[in-house]
């Protein structure tokens, strides 16, 4: 069963993946463009995306054992 935290983590990791795709393909950092280069908010977004990725490691092991 997927709960709210699982969905939030998935959305954050998708946002992070899309952002890295833009950085790799075009050299464009969408998070920095929206919130400012290494501003407090952009750093918080990067931290949340990283935490979401760590959480999804746990989530993947949880669903794979069912």
TrEMBL record:
Origin superkingdom: Archaea
Listed Pfam families: DUF378 (PF04070)
Classification of source organism: Archaea, Methanobacteriati, Methanobacteriota, Stenosarchaea group, Methanomicrobia
The keyword Nucleotide-binding belongs to this UniProt entry's keyword annotation: no
Keywords: Membrane, Transmembrane, Transmembrane helix
Transmembrane domains' residue ranges: 7-28, 40-60
The keyword Transmembrane helix belongs to this UniProt entry's keyword annotation: yes
Protein name: DUF378 domain-containing protein
Signal peptide positions on this chain: none
